[in-house]
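Supplementary Methods S3. Input chains for the assembly prediction are listed below.
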Amino acid sequence: MLRCPAHTSSSGEIMQRRCTKQRIDPSGVHYLSCSGALYLSLNYHRGSGKGRRGKSIWAIGRDAECHTFCEAEIGKWSDARANYWAVSVDARVQLGKNGERLAFFDAPVNVTDPWHGYPISGRPGSPTRRRPPDELVGRWLDEGRISYVTYDRILTGRL
Amino acid sequence: MRKFKTVRVELPGDWRDGWLYKDHLLLWSRSGHAYWMPTTALVDLVRQETNPSLTVLTEYLIFRNDWKSSEQFRKLLSVRGVHSALLRGFGSERSEATVRIGGVPVDNLPTERVPGIALDTSLYANRVYVASTEGLFESYFNPADPRIQYPLIQRLEVRTAKVAARYLSLNASTEDEGLWFAPILIGQGYWDEWPPQSRDLNMDRVAEYSLAASFASRHLLNYKNSPTPGFLRAEAVRERAHDRAAYDEWRVVNYEAERDIERLALHALMHQDKARLSLVEKDRDPLPDERPVVLGNSGYRLLLNWQDESHVIDISAFQGKDIEARPDRRFGRAQLPHASPEEVLAVYPMAAGFLVELLDEVRLLTPNGSYLLFEGSAARVRTFPHSRRYQDVALIVGEDGCHLVGFLES
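Predicted structure tokens for the full assembly:
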């Protein structure tokens, strides 16, 4: 069991949440996230399994991957299409093997589908280039998640 | 490797961006307001803060690179004792001398605030181009009297990530919306008359996708999601830019369709010889798994990573000739440190070589070695390789201030 980040609710109550490993199947490792959502750590974003070519590869462990998803859920770091985005504190953790320091979590098409995600970068030349919405990057800055330098680097596609 | 000394002038403040233009420093605050100050006033502040030898060195290395690159300066340095007298401010071990300016006495630049978040800025031919989340905006900076207010004109209405202006051409990268180009018109009422006239400037889309564009001589390198940028060959004419111009200059009038140069770069690297695009395009062999990654360019020089090594190749498209690439002999492979694509955040052009932005430092890569130019994280890095005074100066905006950095490689 992985301890998810402490989260302060609107009433100021500190909540500890858990990310729980459920089962393993040929596609990857299934988790129950902090909020109870299904999360699948896919093998093909781990450098194994079918269809891994051209995919970005996590540089962090599977539990930490689910933890990153939890942080995005708790922080409500979503875009207009309900996808989640994540960044570690001031982007200090390298999340992907190609130097990616951001993560993207595709919103499931069906409610019964699990979430999944992968590391991304906004840099030119990156095969999985994606850029979080400007408003969300602004929120990360306002919430103290990232410094001004990191904010500007994300906005200008250097991270 | 040669001896390397840097001089850094630190201007505290919450800055977003900055630019050295003619004899002015322009700064933008994080709230989007623009400020200016003459560099002569900045030199006076440096003089108040430090000793005479460091003041002289700061002038040469930061504010007058044309003096630094002169034959007179080279001859002066060859006189016994001059070099050590100039470097007196460093002490025996230090490689950096810092001048901290307590308060920066800047004046407001009377221009409208650009809507959205400013992502990129370029000053060229007294025009101020700002790429923002709300579009591309143009205004005017009058170096003779910066207090004059000029209107702000919107050129594009989509999020504009980067802007590149040179050779009387304006180029804007708007990601999915493409790469846009327009000629820059001088005279005929375009900003140069009072009251300034807002003329329509139609921009043409010259590529379908663009994250950034950078000049390689008169041509453009279009950075995208691919490991190698596209190449847009410029159609250019040499003419007087306006009635009062004293000499001819190149004007880009159009670009040919974007060309893929990945195979060209690969041929130049594999054979360590000149490669021609028309010949390598006939090659139908599949590309190897390990493809070159262009980290950035400094003019026609491309800095690449291939087979876990750094390389520099030169790209050219001379009039009447094919697009060609060849290994750069000055930047010999043995001298280049490893610069992996995972670590490099961005590459900027400098007259001396490449400025390489890493997570916690900025390094300068010259034909003689790799040097630490700035220790710290950079929000913005500006270089001015085509200016007369600042061709080897870096303006770096950090978390708590703006830094002007010059260097002496001896």
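Helices of chain A lie at 62-75, 134-142, 148-155. Residues 62-75 of chain A form the longest helix (14 residues).
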